[in-house]
Task: inverse folding
């Protein structure tokens, strides 16, 4: 079982981060402090806030903080709730100071455990740049299989991977 736990950032936390108020964002997530790196991810937080405004039910699925031993090691979540086939698309980032320690694997394992415990999630999808060798290796080690590719408006070419929940 993974030692990574999740704390939702939620709409209030997202707004606080976008306002540059990490203390308020930390309070909304019930954490003592948040890393300044989150401020650099403002492009993502804007996307998630717009998404929540359009579909309020998505708030519980997007913008989670990944916490290990009481410390924020990254952020994660899904692109939204399961689609009609029960598939979710994962998103995860490990903070730069924690990279190279195997924590992305722990984070992904925790996401997969969370998915496996739910009745509404049947498969998990990951879209990864062909240049991101670390993530490509990670999802392959966790049983994901490449099933296609797509062009993402923000990120360009991505390979699509899928595995059962």
Result:
């Amino acid at each position: 079982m993974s030692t990574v736990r999740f704390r939702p950032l939620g709409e209030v936390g997202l707004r606080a981060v976008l306002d540059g108020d990490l203390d308020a964002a930390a309070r909304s997530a019930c954490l003592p402090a948040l890393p300044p790196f989150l401020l650099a991810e403002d492009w993502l937080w804007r996307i998630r806030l717009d998404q929540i405004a359009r579909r309020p039910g998505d708030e519980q699925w997007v913008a989670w903080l990944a916490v290990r031993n009481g410390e924020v090691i990254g952020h994660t979540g899904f692109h939204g709730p399961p689609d009609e086939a029960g598939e979710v698309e994962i998103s995860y980032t490990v903070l730069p100071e924690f990279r190279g320690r195997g924590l992305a694997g722990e984070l992904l394992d925790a996401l997969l455990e969370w998915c496996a415990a739910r009745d509404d999630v049947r498969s998990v999808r990951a879209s990864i740049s062909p240049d991101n060798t670390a993530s490509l290796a990670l999802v392959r080690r966790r049983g994901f299989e490449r099933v296609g590719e797509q062009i993402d408006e923000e990120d360009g070419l991505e390979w699509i991977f899928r595995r059962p929940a």
